[in-house]
Design brief:
269 residues; alpha/beta; Rossmann fold; 11 helices
Length: 269
Amino acid sequence: MRRKLFRWVKVAVLLYCIAGIALYYLQNVFLFHPVPLPREYRYEFPVPFEEGEIALNKTDTFSFVMFFPKGVSPKGIVLYFHGNRTNINRYAKFADVFTSQNYEVWMGDYPGFGKSTGERTEKLMYEQAVQFYRLATSRFGKDSIILYGKSLGTGFAAYLASREDCRQLILETPYYSIPDIFACYAPVYPVSRMINFKVPTYQYLRDVKVPVTIFHGTKDGVIPYRCAEKLKDALKPGDQFITVDKGSHNDLGNFPVYKKTMDSLLRIP
């Protein structure tokens, strides 16, 4: 009996080690799902748009698309930081939420996503966000800039709002930090030391002075609600954490509470 128990303990330890090694070496595979595009690729969207590019240095470029409201001058701009899948093609449909309210929307790709180039590091992605903002301020006043983050992009939007002036910060399906996402799925591992990307959204939110609105669904299967709910402690009086009952990770825009709140936020002159 003792030998059998010892054998099972050895198997359990071996499986724990194998899974831990896989988690460490495959963390970027779990975290990022890019689809690169050649420079000659032509976007096709059913709305007015233009492509833009920022040269971060001699080798790294930041590619983005500017979506315009139809037939009117924009009353502001939304810098949209998208999620961890494919590229702008996947998220372009969400620009209508803002262009229909007469906002210009700029949506960029992370390194290795779409036409953006460079080694994908946390430092470079922060730099992308800062340069994105600086270009926006050359065309719009700071009080006309809305920062919007979805999923992976929420951490970078929060980072930017913690250090730069804007009108408001809106986060859809955010996370406490990148290691915390892994901890939600693999609580038996010391993920705070294993995961290279940190992006501590909770820290950045504590330094945001402008109004913050967060949307998160109770049925989110990617970033569990219980994990995102911890961000409530980082919010200041007047900020909103809006729970979307039965909302999942990619369908919050279908719920009346999302539509009503967004209409209210975007109607502010």
